[in-house]
Design a protein that fits this description.
about 70 residues; mainly alpha
Length: about 70
């Protein structure tokens, strides 16, 4: 157990001076991940939403967001 790393204190710092193509690629990956999770959110029924503590309005609000937000 002593070999485990405490990841709760780690934070990912954005690379301010990253290469523009790297930033573009990272943004694209983040957008695709948001789109994937929103597709999964769209498939949830009322019971699943209640388990997550979300309302139908919360779900619709998230699904209406553009990919870059």
């Amino acid at each position: 157990m002593k070999d485990l790393q405490d990841v709760s204190t780690l934070s990912i710092q954005p690379l301010v001076h990253a290469h523009p193509l790297r930033r573009l690629f990272r943004s694209l990956c983040q957008g695709l991940e948001r789109a994937r999770t929103r597709r999964l959110l769209a498939q949830l029924d009322q019971r699943d939403l209640a388990d997550l503590g979300l309302s139908q309005a919360d779900r619709l609000n998230e699904l209406e967001k553009p990919i870059w937000r």
